[in-house]
Amino acid sequence: MSRDPCTRNFLIAALMSALVLGGCGRKSETHDPDSAAPLDSPAGEPAADERNTAESPNSEGQLICTDTWFQWVNEQVQSIHSEVIAEQYPSGLPDVGTDEWFMAVDKLTGGDGAHGPDPGSDEWCFMMQQRLSKTDSGN
User: Fold this and answer.
1) Spatial distance between the Cα atoms of 52 and 46, rounded to a whole number of angstroms
2) Domain assignment of residue 38, yes or no
3) 91, 106, 108, 123: which is deepest, by most CB within 10 A?
């Protein structure tokens, strides 16, 4: 069975396109913080809009990643690093919960403000709780 080269090239191109486009539709394992959790998400996983109100206990059973906890972090950072804040942020720290606040708190507690968990995520909160606990126990 002989096919002309144009038909064969067309069939190969069509097959390759189908494979490439099929791969683009694959769902990612990463979480998009701007979208709500799917209805079939595993139990216990909060929707993205619940991330700052989800009740996540730290090792002592205290709730973290709540609005109250973020205020506590702000107060702790201000009391521990008041001199640095006065020097680097003459108008005071940015508003709690803003991207600028997350970056400032990360830098003030030993991070570089650019690497690490997503700001406001459970991982970020646990990391910050550990940093503040180490600072608190060192005093």
Assistant:
1) 10
2) no
3) 106
CA atoms of 8 and 63, how far apart (whole Å)? 64
**Mean pLDDT for the stretch of residues 59-77:** 84
What is the distance, to the nearest Å, from the Cα of residue 45 to the centroid of all Cα atoms in its chain? 14
The structure's pTM equals: 0.55
pLDDT in tens, 45-55: 333 333 343 44
- Residue 104's pLDDT band (cuts 50, 70, 90): very high
Question: How many Cβ atoms sit within 10 Å of the Cβ of residue 27?
Answer: 6
Give the chain's domain count.
Answer: 1
Residue 30 lies in a domain: no
In a domain, 104, yes or no: yes
